[in-house]
């Protein structure tokens, strides 16, 4: 600890520094909440103390300890956590960057013109993609465009059989394989209804049935491998670009 800064500390802050000095070996594995509980001080006291000691926060202090105790294997956990977090950041950055790179201005323009000329927009989505679909619906409505969004298979199927050629359907599906959406796309194809699909799988049956296709990049990394809750970030990027471009064209 820094002697100059120590003189400026309150009683509880001095208590904290004493606790840390007596437990340096445990600090790398501690979260700020755990330290708060064990040292019997608030997390606010920890943050305030670290700032008085010249650090940005508790994590910054742990980095300092790691550098000062480079030969202590217990401090390697700090670097390990950093790498894991950086990997998570890189995963999301890659999905955004590569998805944008995959977009084609001509396809965007085609979609805008089709949407603009349509009497009604219908958006079909299932699962977590419903959240993106709802946002899209609201934004179209705010731009005075008639738009409905449906996520119930028992509604999607019959509606897809009674659309007119002046309507347009937008499918939002990460894997492009959802059965009820594929069935709805087949109905649209039979009745010559224009369809737009936003997906991360260009080889799925839904993508192959679509008139206008937007494909995003989906990272192979999943932090929830036991569940079908993969990130819809690439789909969000595509819909945001499409909506912004539509708004620009309709000022």
From TrEMBL:
Keyword hit for Transcription regulation: yes
PROSITE patterns in UniProt: HTH_RPIR (PS51071), SIS (PS51464)
Domain HTH rpiR-type: 1-72
Protein's GO biological process: carbohydrate derivative metabolic process
Alphabetical UniProt keywords: DNA-binding, Transcription, Transcription regulation
Molecular function (Gene Ontology), one example: DNA-binding transcription factor activity
Organism domain of life: Bacteria
Name of this protein: MurR/RpiR family transcriptional regulator
């Amino acid at each position: 600890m820094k002697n100059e800064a120590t003189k400026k500390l309150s009683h509880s802050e001095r208590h904290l520094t004493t606790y840390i000095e007596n437990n340096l070996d445990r600090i790398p594995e501690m979260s700020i909440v755990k330290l708060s509980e064990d040292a019997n001080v608030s997390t606010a006291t920890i943050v305030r103390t670290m700032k008085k000691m010249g650090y940005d926060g508790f994590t910054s202090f742990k980095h300092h300890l790691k550098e000062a105790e480079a030969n202590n294997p217990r401090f390697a956990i700090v670097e390990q956590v950093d790498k894991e977090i950086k990997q998570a950041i890189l995963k999301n950055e890659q999905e955004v960057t590569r998805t944008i790179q995959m977009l084609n201005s001509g396809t965007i323009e085609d979609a805008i013109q089709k949407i603009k000329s349509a009497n009604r927009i219908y958006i079909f989505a299932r699962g977590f993609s419903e959240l993106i679909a709802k946002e899209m619906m609201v934004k179209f409505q705010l731009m005075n465009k008639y738009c409905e969004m449906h996520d119930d298979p028992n509604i999607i199927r019959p509606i897809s059989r009674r659309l007119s050629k002046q309507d347009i359907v937008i499918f939002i599906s990460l894997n492009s394989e959802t059965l009820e959406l594929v069935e709805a796309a087949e109905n649209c194809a039979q009745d010559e209804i224009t369809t737009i699909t936003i997906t991360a799988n260009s080889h799925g049956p839904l993508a192959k049935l679509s008139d206008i296709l937007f494909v995003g990049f989906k990272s192979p990394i999943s932090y929830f491998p036991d569940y079908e809750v993969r990130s819809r970030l690439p789909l969000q990027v595509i819909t945001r670009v499409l909506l912004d471009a539509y708004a620009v064209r309709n000022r």
